[in-house]
Design brief:
Layout: H1 9-25, E1 34-37, E2 44-47, E3 64-66, E4 76-92, E5 97-106, E6 117-126, E7 132-135, E8 138-139, H2 143-146, E9 151-152, E10 160-168, E11 172-180, E12 189-198, E13 213-224, H3 228-231, E14 250-255, H4 262-265, E15 276-281, E16 313-325, E17 328-331, E18 341-342, H5 359-369, H6 378-382, E19 402-412, E20 417-428, H7 431-447, E21 453-454, E22 460-461, H8 464-492, E23 506-511, E24 516-520, E25 530-539, E26 550-555, E27 562-565, E28 574-582, E29 619-621, E30 625-626, H9 630-634, E31 643-646, E32 652-658, E33 663-669, E34 676-678, E35 691-698, E36 704-712
Helix pairs in contact: 7-8
Amino acid sequence: MKKRIIMNDKNLLLVFLICFLSISLISGSHAQDIRWLRVGELQSPYNEVGAEYEVEFSNNTSNYFSWPAQYSIDQTVTRMKCVWIGCTDFDDPVEKKVKGVKIIGSGPKSTAMPDQVFPQEIKLIGKFAHPAVTVDDVRATVLDQYDILDEIDPDLPCDRMVYVRYNTSIGITVTKKIMAFAQPEHGNYHINEWVFKNTGIVDAQGNEYPQTLSNVWFYFFYRYAFGGLTAAGSFSDVWGGFNSLWGESTLNHGFGQNPNASAFTDQNSPLYQMRGFYSYYGPYDKSPRPPYDADWGCPKLDDPGAGTLGSAKFAGCVTLHADKGPGNEADDATQPHTTWHLSPDITIMSNTSPSQYDEIFMNDRWAAMTEGHPPQQHDEMVGDNYPNNYKDSRRNAGGGVGMGQGFGPYTIAAGESIRIVFAEGVSGISWEKGREIGSNWLKWFNTGSGPSLKLPDGSTTTDYNEYKRAWVVDTGRDSILATYRLAKENFDSDYTLPQPPPPPEEFSVNGGGDRIQLTWASNATTHPHFGGYVIYRSEGNILDWQTVYQKIYETDDANLTSFSDTTAKRGFDYFYYIQTKDDGTQVPGTTLYSSMFWTVTSIGALLGRPAGSALAEVRVVPNPYDIRSRMLQFGDQSQYDRIAFYGLPPLCKLKIFTERGDLIWEKDHTTTTGDEIWDSMTSSGQIITSGIYILYVETPEGESVTRKFVVIR
């Protein structure tokens, strides 16, 4: 075979020197270019090298892949992932020999080696820009920081897509598309489409070394951990243990490994034509609070969330498509061919970046990638003996158990490709139901009696541990399988989901003296199935596990673009979101809503003081303004240099001058409140310096007043 690159001894030495330096300098904390998907209930960052490795995005006690994100981005379930690509009989251009086994990849405990993976492109593509959300004229959405689009494509099959492309030293170019759907019923899974093309590109310079690749396997590994929210606190307020943060309590279950089995072929089966796995939180046998069988769902014990089940959730993957071979795009229902569970702490998962030239190490990885199917699933092996009583030097080395999926073998000639598609999702009983179940259980646990305990099938029991387990495990399993079914239907329909009307392009919240005023754009009314708006409000919390949003308004009026919240009380911060809804005809019996995450406010709105009745009431607070004490002045909003003007009339013109008379800022005050907040910036966006300033207030009738104030920076 003719090669397109020739490496002499000098080049070979240079390559090895680069590899050595890379190994010396790269660590698991090396930052990658990332993009976020944050428009649905499932939210996560994704990197440019294909696999989100351990502690890439946070410290050693946190993970990523958050659901339900409405109740905190800390609702994480994933510790780490990996993607490996391997083949046999590889003619290596660096070593100048045919290798029995060649494996490259990224994760699970470290980033990709710079001599194995060569990032080319990462971008976030959106169907449309996220709405402009403001509170008192200040931008107030986290999407401004996380939903930063590189490209807008109105024909996108999803609402957001992270596009990743990288080359590898094995000669395969990887293209990965991660699709997120904002529609609430489909917001808890991401669809991953992988295309592995034999381009022959083997280095960062783009040099080609074309050859046919034999016995190619693509391997994915997942380490889920479900104790994040309720095991992260002190042991006095939670049931589970710290180790559950890295998955020591995780149980795993694969399904669909035999396409001829009745569960796969029976249309009435919940597993009909589905293959994949799910993972979930099991009782933790190192919990600081025995008995361990009371640990299902990991209840939180502190007020005000007594009993809240922070880990009543399931996560995993369902395979949607795997090519039968290059040029044969039919789905191979027998893939993946490897579905064994493994310990994330064995040598092949090492956090020291492995060399692609270490044949002993690569052979060990190859054995895992090509291992086949287990005779029994992990949770079945464990049974009621609880996770750490299942000891196996390869399956559980003491730090928990993860799941692997291997697709192969394929023979891929130069220019040919393989496409694999799967959905990764998280589901479980709702957060609200988790509060209810946990609260009922805790009352029984503490007193031996309590409210009637109704099981999911409608029967009742006094066995409070079995009650909690039934809701966590039985309904949790049903919910993740239902999620997989929705993802499969979405994929099979070529992403033709019925869509709710788009969110308002603008959503503004403004505090007044006797009400909080909400206004929004009317763009959603052009949707052919527009059905109205719904507004929700929380008091004091935003996207936090204690947050409770309540519906405060709903309308079918297409002409309405404002709402006055007159039930707000002075002294409280309020957070809002508005959803559009359809007319209920697209999916009979179902109303479709836009995602709350498009418009949820990240800054609290509050009632201001009533407008002043006389200009003599106008004052500047604080005066003097000292930047060193701003935290005391405006609390967690202290990132803004906020100076308040109080006692203003309802209609007036505000102007600020320097001591020598230069006009640096002005604004028309038109609200019903007597308050106005200034961020200490000039009209041209410059932060003011220390000095004496003059506030000038003028009413429409021509009356005016001035106030001097001092700024110390």
